[in-house]
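Action item from last week, closing it out:
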Amino acid sequence: MRLYELFMGPLDVAKPWQMSGVAGVSRFLHRAWRIAIGEDGMLSSKITDAEPCPEIARILHKTIKSVGDDIEALRFNTAISKLMELSNTLTGLDTRPRSAIESFVLLLAPFAPHIAEELWKLLGHPKSLSPEPWPTYDPTLADDDIREIIVQVNGKLRGRIHAASMISDGELVALAAREGDVKAKLVGKTVLKEIVVPGRLVNFVIAD
């Protein structure tokens, strides 16, 4: 009932009670349970320790951002809608990254604390999830407007990265410097200048 009441609509708007809505929320909770737990009541064999693929990571980080924003604005109904969408995505996966499942459970906890606690325990955590930090998101994954950025060292192409259009020049330079081949080229070198063309290019000018 807690989840349904939060899902009914904006807090400041009167909403009619509908049993069909209760049934819909019940189906969501059942689906949330089955994401992690098999029919035998044990942890699903589909859960893997592998990292999420880029597309799932993008969906996850967008959801973390959206749910956090909605909670701050007291838009609990839309936050729950985002969790329903994420649950549909995770349910459709042949293998389900543990990190994504655990983030989903932490996002679910404010709305359905009892089932979230049980899922957390079955995922192998002996202690309550209450003191766990809220999931964080990567702005470069949560932004819809992702750009491919060319990274150069002394004017020569050394790599490509993907970054959100909203990223600052400083963050873009730091991200570019961590790219594998670029990082290797910068080791032990003095960077004389960092040239940034927002949304397009980063060029590190180093001393020979």
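Closing note: The longest strand covers residues 156-164.
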